């Protein structure tokens, strides 16, 4: 079936009549095209921080579970994911099969000795990290560094992160850094990393520099604030104090980042997969404008990851809603249709089969 959609295309809201010519949009009529939906057209959604393929941290890659979790993403309208860290080497079909999202990934995580989940990633000496990260980025396009971990752990020094950034950029890749402590976040920003993942406890005074140098923030807001109730009920400890102090202001930090001009990316980092709508709504509830909250999970994230939106020649991904989702974010949970690589893979009351 040749897909056709029409309606008001975001971000500008201009009327568009789009046909899928293979995996590219065109405004030229394609004979035999079927109008699958009309309304408000959104470039396919993006989850910029997700780790599919394992049932729990530290467990190995499970190809069957990976496909199941990727289908959960598609059900939510996600047509592109970024996995800054995978539980193992993905199968050849990852990001390529017509019924799973496109993918960008960093392969396994890189961490200091004694940090991160046992069984995941690779732990290395500081002197090894730049070359390991460059090799990874040359292969996948991204490298992921765990800059800090538990309360009391030392963060990766800024000179090491600077060397990582220099070597990865020389290899043509980009660097994502996990940080949930002030020292790690400060080192990551000073090193000029490409994206800061989580960013909890980040000094708000660093936001202007992030905006100036193009460091994106993926706050994973819904999972961080969603754990507040559980952490509040835990016995007092340094870890509890740290978590509550950062998580309680994480929404305000995220809104301030968006206001400062930092590119905010929507990422879920949680089970079950397919929770991008909850992340968009969490961004808006924190004070990010609804237009910008949706951009963080659509056109802005796609641009950051190298894909264009709803225009001729762009990859044929879209989600269609009955009404403007910016005016009513509840719309996001009930798309009229999801188009992935030019195929209508989901339509209200219908799911595509092989070859549809």
Describe, in plain words, how this protein is organized in 3D:
With 356 residues, the protein is of the alpha/beta class. The protein folds into two domains: 2-43 and 309-351, Urease, subunit C, domain 1, CATH 2.30.40.10; 45-304, TIM Barrel (Alpha-Beta Barrel). The chain has twelve helices and 17 strands. The protein has helices at residues 63-75, 129-140, 158-170, 182-191, 207-213, 221-226, 228-232, 238-247, 250-260, 276-285, 290-295, 299-304, and strands at residues 2-9, 14-21, 24-26, 33-43, 45-47, 78-83, 102-105, 110-111, 122-123, 142-146, 174-179, 195-198, 216-218, 318-321, 337-340, 343-347, 350-351. The strands form four sheets. Strands 3-2-1-4-14-15-16-17 form an eight-stranded mixed β-sheet, with no helix packed on it. The chain has a four-stranded parallel β-sheet with strand order 10-11-12-13. It has a three-stranded parallel β-sheet with strand order 5-6-7. The chain is globular. The termini are close together. 53% of the residues are buried. The mean pLDDT is 96. InterPro entries: Amidohydro-rel, Metal-dep_hydrolase_composite, Metal_Hydrolase, Metallo-dep_Hydrolase. It holds the Pfam family Amidohydro_1. This is Amidohydrolase family protein. Residues 153-343 form the Amidohydrolase-related domain. It comes from Amycolatopsis melonis.
